Amino acid sequence: MKILYFAPHPVWPLTTGARLRDYHCARQLALRSEVTFVQMCNRGEVPPEPPAEGGFVRLCTVYKDRSYTPGKILRGLLGPTPIPVVNYTSAGASTELRRILESQGPFDSIQVEGQGLSGYIPEIRRLSEAAIISDWHNLDSELMRRYAGAEANLVRKLAALRTAPLMQRVEEGLIRGCDAVAVVSEREQQILHRRYPGTRVHVIPNGVETAYYRRDAGEVDAERRSLLFVGSMDYHANIDAVQWFVAEIWPGIAEQNPGLRFTVVGKDPPASIRALHGKSVEVTGTVPDVRPYYRQAVALAVPLRVGSGTRLKVLEAMAARVPVISTRCGAEGIDAQHDRELLYAETREEFCMAVAKLNTESGSRARLTAAAEELVGRHYEWSAIGEKLFEVHRDAAETARKKRG
Q1: What is the 3-state secondary structure (H, E, C) of 245-293?
Q2: Consecutive 10-residue averages of pLDDT for the chain (405 residues)
Q3: Which of 81, 129, 271, 380 has the fewest CB atoms within 10 Å, i.e. the most exposed one?
Q4: Domains in the chain, please, with CATH?
């Protein structure tokens, strides 16, 4: 098979959850077929090449215009097309994509990442008979509604409330117009089945390369103990989580654990997050390798209050044998149970109790990490996820061929 994989960001380096998912999904497809990866970059951006082990037959780049310009914001708020789609849609990128389709095709299937690239679907349909698979990292309409519910700023709240129904309309168009749609959890699959009865939605979960984290998993460094947060710090859900945690939760934990530090690892922290850096809070920014931070962690804290999809950081920590303390939103979509593979906490008291449990009950730590490691090995290994994704492509391509006669 010949597959085109179209992502709204560079494939490398793997500094975000979205890039991790796209790289590993595309790499798994490349083990089974011929993959052309099309990455979208900002004008003037020159991202590094991915390693040869990615296995892509070619890497192509299209360029988008600057995001969140005043004109785009107005179009997104006042027009029928939501801001996330307006930001990624440009005539120049469409022209470059057309050249790739004409020069490198024909393709059997094309995977389009996220709802933001929906504006390119009509052009792809016009130029190619390939089956189109739309892969969603989040249920963006739900994400916008949750964001609106948690946002205190009135302007941003109203913008999110305006965007949510527009994104749901985009999602419906993708459901109706693509050959297959993939989401990351059964929960999101069920939501879409209720919205659009009779439609077929596939679950392609986020995954983890367990051996990569297991090789370096080790005992906690007693001299540099930390409660760890991992995530892209230019993402509003992570910003909200860290700010809330430091203001409301961390003081109680720090008081009970004087030698403990809250470490925030993730790219592009805004000024509001960098300002939190101090005696008991560390903000690292981008790091070349997150594994040393897992080795130093008493636990991974996932205090998310908004968001959608599933968290790769949870799977990484489980593979690295690091206990996870999470809100239910933070571990949503992962088939884990409280006090079996992780600890759920929603309040200061619950987070404090969870940290105390891990610090004082060595048996609990061993039991949780063993169960979590077994869970990710059984359900969230990229190799098994890749086989399922390839089946989606193969079946969609075969159906598309039959329709053409």
Answers
A1: HHHHHHHHHHHHCCCCEEEEECCCCCHHHHCCCCCCEEEEECCCCCHHH
A2: 97 90 96 97 89 93 92 92 94 94 94 96 94 95 88 89 96 95 94 92 93 64 77 90 95 92 94 93 92 92 80 91 94 90 95 92 89 93 95 95 79
A3: 271
A4: 2-207+382-404 (3.40.50.2000), 210-379 (3.40.50.2000)
- Residue 3 in contact with residue 101, Cβ under 8 Å? no
Closest among 201, 36, 28 to 110, alpha carbons compared: 36
Give me the helix-helix angle, 312-319 and 362-379, nearest 10°: 120
Q: How far is 154 from 163, CA to CA, in rounded Å?
A: 14
Closest residue by Cα to residue 265 from 314, 300, 230, 213: 230
Beta strand 34-42 pairing with 261-265: unpaired
203 exposure class (CB count in 10 Å sphere: 0-12, 13-18, 19+): middle
Q: Whats the size of the chain, residue-wise?
A: 405
pTM of the model: 0.87
At 108, which amino acid appears?
Answer: D
**Do β-strands 201-203 and 180-183 pair in parallel, antiparallel, or remain unpaired?**
parallel
CA distance linking residue 82 with residue 119, whole number of Å: 11
C-alpha closest to that of 376 among 339, 337, 336: 336
Listed in order, strand segments (DSSP E) in 97-173 are: 109-113, 131-135
Q: Report the C-alpha gap between 286 and 273 in whole angstroms.
A: 13
Beta-carbon contacts of 75 under 8 Å, excluding residues fewer than 6 positions away, are 81, 83, 86
Partners of 381 in the β-ladder: 208
Beta bridge partners of 106: none
The closest alpha carbon to 63, from 86, 45, 76, 83, belongs to: 45
Of 35, 203, 375, 336, the closest CA to residue 24 belongs to 35
> Whose CA is closest to 368, among 388, 340, 349?
340
DSSP state letter for 53 = G
β-pair partners for 396 = none
